[in-house]
């Protein structure tokens, strides 16, 4: 600060290109397993058939969400909230125990980056070749390789966009429309938008998404503590680092780290894990794989960089101790919360009746007197048969002595039909008190008595 | 179209918005880089030092982020150019929500118009027999008619029951269509002064009740009332059978629009009644009214 010569500070910096080296090892295999599992699910699910329709279809036009045998209506929106709560608790739990494993192994950003990097390696060659090519001047070979890469990325991206739209519009019809490009305007928009998002995020932005855009990364640190598993460098063992000494396999300075920088080269976010835990670290363990293979080569034990906890590295704990520390109040609370929500959702789904009814009293009249002095009230039953099968239902009302329907007491609804049925309820003269009386309207399927819904309503006896 | 009666407010908003947008651009440009005293550390600092030795680290955002900020400014300017936003300037595209609403109406018309048009060319009784038309008519009825006539079309006090065979203006399907298209205005003038004393009014009310054979009718009062009923005959006819040409109700049945007690009838005689069925022709269009009329007619003519 004593130097008088001014320096230009840039508040916005050009991105430093990262050329991650391919990591091979246990964790890399695990990540590829996750890539296969998630992508087979994502690309395959919309093609399944159930009950003669697409098994998983979020039909936004008719506002019905099909999940295999389950049909969700807008009224079931609470299950979406429940799903989000389950996801949140799961994230809390997993993060508290094992840090950012979601980020490193299953996050779409990681998965698609992995696929795009694989394509890049196949076309442009390994890290060294890509770095060399970046330094080269323009040449036909360079541009043909680049073009091929972007075309391949484009194909994967378009396929992803197509599949995504296939969750919201029948994918087989969409597939047929592909050959004639007869998409509707919204289908065009979402296929291209999602394709562009995949291409941009996995091809160009990569670690920038994790560092600058991802909201999860921002608040995951609040679930970390000293017993959370993190990818960590064992500084006690590694330092002082230096070049490898021929006889021991250790560095010439005596530490285990031989400063080969493989851990830095494989890192997809371009950090040096030896500087300690950093917010850019997505816990992908590529550096663990790289370091392990180097340690194998120099005949040293693995685990210089490993999954461990802050407490374990500082206090020198064994794996057994780490496991013992996993069950701490924070983890138990997350488990309990998760279990509670899952049980609530499961029981509510199991007990759910695929039949809904709203009873709407006609506001025009209080209640009319009909022949014989009986009092009549008019209602509109908004009946929703949320199952895929048609049913015949019996309407019944109770709550006042002699309360009876003056209209047809049976109604038929087709599968997933909604209908407004006007009904009249009649109570004999003198039944109930002047003013409003609480009554219950009940709807029961004739072929399945378990399909019953009851709604309370008001019967008005005029003065 | 302008909501501004005074050009000052127009200019006020134009100037404020423009300065705001330009201000964002200037701020962004001026804050993207600046000169500070050189500091030799592992990580650069912004040069801000306070409380003697606290310094702010410079961990720069990515450059594309800055370009995104600039893009939003460009987007904002383009938006203000194309769409209304700058005071009373209507925007290059001339968009407004009323136009969009009309376009949406036109789209719905082009989609459903042919369907209604098909029914409009059919005879009303044929439309009434069509299941799809019946379902459409029911929905139209629940939307536009149920507020007064009830979901079940059985009416209310002052609002006729549409499911019986009793019609003020006639129950032919074409007449019903006339009623819905053009509305009806039913007026019963106050007859109190013409009939005479309260006693006379009461007598006439009991005579009216006797026409339908009501048990509530007092035979003596009824006899006295009969002689005064002449004032009513012009509209309701000699036997009180009503006149559909005038919309005068039949008094010899047990259907009462306002209630069939002697008190209610006396009130009707004394004060008269003024009843309006609004016209729906301009609002709904003839083809929808056609389907609706068939539905209403079917309510009292269907063998269900």
Overview of this protein structure:
- The complex is a heterodimer of chains A (463) and B (304).
- Chain A is of the alpha+beta class and 463 residues long.
- Helix content of chain A is 43%, strand content 21%.
- Chain A is built from 16 helices and 18 strands.
- In chain A, strands 10, 11, 12, 14 and 16 form a 5-stranded antiparallel beta sheet that branches. A 4-stranded antiparallel beta sheet of chain A has the order 15-13-17-18, with no helix packed on it.
- The radius of gyration of chain A is 32 Å and the shape is elongated.
- Chain A starts with 5 loop residues before the first strand and ends with a strand.
- Chain B has helices spanning 7-32, 63-82, 97-120, 124-128, 131-144, 146-149, 173-182, 192-195, 198-211, 219-228, 230-236, 262-271, 281-284, 286-301; strands spanning 33-37, 45-50, 54-57, 61-62, 184-188, 273-277.
- In chain B, strands 2-3 form a two-stranded antiparallel sheet.
- In chain B, helix 5 (131-144) packs across helix 14, helix 7 (173-182) packs across helix 14 (286-301) and helix 9 (198-211) packs across helix 12 (262-271).
- Chain A binds chain B through residues 1, 3-15, 208, 212, 362-365, 368, 378-380, 407, 420, 422-424, and chain B through 31-40, 44, 46-47, 49, 58, 60-66, 138, 142, 146-154, 156-157, 159.
The largest interface is: A-B, 29 and 36 residues
Task: Give the number of DSSP strands of chain B.
Answer: 6
Distance between the ends of chain B: 54 Å
| Structural classification of chain B | mainly alpha
Strand content of chain B: 5-15%
Helix content of chain A: 40-55%
Radius of gyration of chain B: 37 Å
Instruction: Quickly count the helices of chain A.
Output: 16
| Mass-distribution shape of chain B | elongated
H/E topology pattern of chain B: HEEEEHHHHHHEHHHHHEHH
Q: In one word, what is the shape of chain A? A: elongated
Number of helices of chain B: 14
Subunit structure (chain B): Component of the cbb3-type cytochrome c oxidase.
Family (chain B): Belongs to the CcoP / FixP family.
Domain Cytochrome c (chain B): 132-212, 215-300
Function (chain B): C-type cytochrome. Part of the cbb3-type cytochrome c oxidase complex.
């Amino acid at each position: 600060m004593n130097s008088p010569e001014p320096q230009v500070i840039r508040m916005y910096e050009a991105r430093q290109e990262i050329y991650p080296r391919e990591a091979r090892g246990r964790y890399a295999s695990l990540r590829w397993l996750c890539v296969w599992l998630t992508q087979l699910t994502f690309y395959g699910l919309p093609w399944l058939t159930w009950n003669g329709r697409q098994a998983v279809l979020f039909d936004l036009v008719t506002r019905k969400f099909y999940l295999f045998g389950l049909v969700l209506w807008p009224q079931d929106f609470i299950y979406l909230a429940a799903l989000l709560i389950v996801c949140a608790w799961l994230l809390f739990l997993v993060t508290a125990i094992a840090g950012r494993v979601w980020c490193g192994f299953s996050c779409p950003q990681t998965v698609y980056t992995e696929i795009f990097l694989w394509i890049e390696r196949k076309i442009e060659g390994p890290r060294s070749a890509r770095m060399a090519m970046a330094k080269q001047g323009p040449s036909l070979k360079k541009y043909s390789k680049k073009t091929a890469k972007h075309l391949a990325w484009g194909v994967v991206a378009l396929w992803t966009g197509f599949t995504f739209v296939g969750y919201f519009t029948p994918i087989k019809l969409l597939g047929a429309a592909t050959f004639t490009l007869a998409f509707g305007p919204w289908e065009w928009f979402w296929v291209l938008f999602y394709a562009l998002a995949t291409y941009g995020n996995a091809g160009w932005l990569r670690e920038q998404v994790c560092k600058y855009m991802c909201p999860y990364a921002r608040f995951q640190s609040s679930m970390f503590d000293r017993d959370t598993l993190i990818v960590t460098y064992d500084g006690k063992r590694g330092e002082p680092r230096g070049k490898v000494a021929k006889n021991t396999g250790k560095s010439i300075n005596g530490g285990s780290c031989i400063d080969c920088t493989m851990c830095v080269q494989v890192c997809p976010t371009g950090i040096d894990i030896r500087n300690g835990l950093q917010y850019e670290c997505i816990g992908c363990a590529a550096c663990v794989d790289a370091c392990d293979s180097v340690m194998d080569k120099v005949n040293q034990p693995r685990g210089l960089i490993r999954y461990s906890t802050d407490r374990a590295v500082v206090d020198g704990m064994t794996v057994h101790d780490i496991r013992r520390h996993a069950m701490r109040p924070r983890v138990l609370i997350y488990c309990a919360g998760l279990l509670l929500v899952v049980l609530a959702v499961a029981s509510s789904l199991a007990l759910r009746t695929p039949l809904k009814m709203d009873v709407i009293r006609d506001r025009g009249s209080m209640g009319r007197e009909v022949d014989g002095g009986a009092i009549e009230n008019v209602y509109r039953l908004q009946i929703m048969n949320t199952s895929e099968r048609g049913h015949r239902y019996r309407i019944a009302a109770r709550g006042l002595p002699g309360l009876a329907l003056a209209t047809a007491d049976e109604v038929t609804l087709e599968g997933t039909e909604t209908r407004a049925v006007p009904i009249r309820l009649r109570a004999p003269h003198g039944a109930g008190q002047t003013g409003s009386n609480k009554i219950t309207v009940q709807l029961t399927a004739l072929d399945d008595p378990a399909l019953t819904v009851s709604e309370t309503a008001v019967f008005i006896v005029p003065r | 179209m302008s909501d501004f009666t005074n050009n000052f407010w127009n200019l006020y908003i134009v100037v404020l918005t423009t300065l705001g947008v330009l201000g964002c651009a200037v701020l962004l440009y001026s804050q993207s880089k600046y000169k500070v005293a050189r500091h030799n550390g592992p990580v650069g600092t912004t040069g801000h030092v306070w409380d003697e030795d606290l310094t702010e680290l410079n961990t720069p955002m990515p450059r594309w982020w800055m370009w995104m900020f600039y893009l939003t400014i460009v987007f904002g300017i383009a938006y203000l150019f194309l769409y209304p936003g700058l005071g009373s300037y209507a925007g290059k595209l001339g968009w407004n929500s009323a136009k969009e609403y009309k376009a949406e109406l036109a789209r719905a018309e082009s989609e459903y118009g042919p369907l209604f048009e098909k029914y409009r060319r059919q005879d009303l009784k044929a439309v009434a027999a069509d299941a799809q038309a019946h379902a459409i008519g029911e929905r139209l009825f629940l939307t536009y008619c149920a507020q007064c006539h009830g979901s079940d079309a059985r009416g209310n006090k002052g609002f006729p029951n549409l499911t019986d065979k009793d019609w003020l203006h006639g129950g032919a399907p074409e007449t019903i269509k006339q009623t819905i298209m053009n509305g009806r205005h039913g007026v019963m003038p106050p007859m109190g002064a013409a009939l005479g004393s309260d006693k006379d009014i009461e007598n006439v009310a009991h005579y009216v009740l006797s026409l339908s054979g009501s048990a509530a009718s007092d035979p003596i009062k009824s006899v006295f009332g009969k002689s005064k009923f002449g004032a009513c005959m012009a509209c309701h006819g000699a036997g009180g059978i009503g006149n559909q040409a005038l919309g005068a109700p039949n008094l010899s049945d047990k259907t009462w629009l306002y209630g069939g007690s002697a008190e209610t009838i006396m009130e009707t005689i004394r004060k008269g009644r003024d009843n309006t069925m609004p016209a729906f022709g301009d609002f709904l269009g003839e083809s929808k009214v056609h389907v609706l009329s068939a539905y209403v007619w079917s309510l009292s003519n269907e063998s269900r």
